[in-house]
Design goal:
2 domains, 233 residues, DNA polymerase, domain 1, elongated, 10 helices, alpha/beta, Rossmann fold, six-stranded parallel sheet
């Protein structure tokens, strides 16, 4: 493997277990708001929520929707699609309440992914290590500080502060400029092919894709598990 001068790394679902925290938050809200009045089960609610949420994050990364729209609509959509939906006014009120609760609870249920602490400390001992995340400022700094790994990162570049989101190559360029590096000197590590890998490709940066399972989508390097990063770098 070529020698790199610094490493960029995604946060949610690469280092932090956001998927688990988000699902726990949704399950908690489902019970607290008695949404079994609308849905046959939590799974029925989640089947409406998750595909729409994934698409909203894709559109957010392409600057097609705003942060406020994403936060509200990911809650409003499943409520409006329920088998026994509330009146629209109630759905709007509940969606607004749930979006605020969701941000708070995802931080409460936050945890690191297996091997994340070991990998981060291993990388930070060898390279300047930069977090490059589309997550919201209101929760990302809290989670990074709560993780106990803040001292491992030389910089944190969040899309909300940068004014652009992955896969827009501009956010990668901002991280490069702040560190005084060239694109060919860096490596991006992430779990999302759309935002992390495609974005790095567009910015001319090598990529290490953490992805379990077979895929034909290209990346400079691929590993099945985060711990495998240590065998390459």
């Amino acid at each position: 493997m070529k020698q790199y001068k610094a490493i960029f790394i995604d946060w949610d679902d690469t280092i932090g277990d956001f998927a688990h925290a988000a699902r726990k938050s949704l399950e908690t809200m489902y019970m607290q708001h008695d949404l079994d009045r609308c849905f046959g089960s939590f799974e029925a609610f989640y089947e409406q929520y998750e595909p729409h949420n994934i698409d909203l994050w894709r559109r957010y990364g392409l600057d097609e929707v705003t942060k406020d729209y994403l936060e509200f609509d990911r809650m409003f959509y499943p409520l409006s699609m329920a088998e026994h939906a509330f009146p629209q006014e109630e759905n709007i009120r509940l969606a607004e309440q749930m979006q605020h609760e969701h941000l708070q609870m995802t931080t409460r249920f936050f945890s690191l992914l297996p091997d994340a602490e070991e990998v981060v400390r291993y990388l930070s001992a060898k390279y300047p290590l930069v977090v490059l995340s589309n997550g919201f400022v209101s929760v990302q700094y809290y989670k990074i500080n709560k993780s106990g790994l803040r001292d491992c990162f030389t910089d944190i570049v969040l899309s909300e502060e940068a004014g652009c989101q992955k896969p827009n190559p501009r956010i990668y360029q901002i991280a490069l400029e702040r560190g005084g590096w060239k694109a060919e000197e860096e490596l991006m590590i992430g779990d999302s092919w759309t935002s992390d890998i495609q974005g790095a490709i567009a910015a001319g940066i090598d990529q290490l894709w953490v992805h379990e399972g077979e895929t034909s989508q290209p990346a400079t390097y691929k590993v099945s598990h985060l711990r495998d990063v240590m065998t390459l770098l």
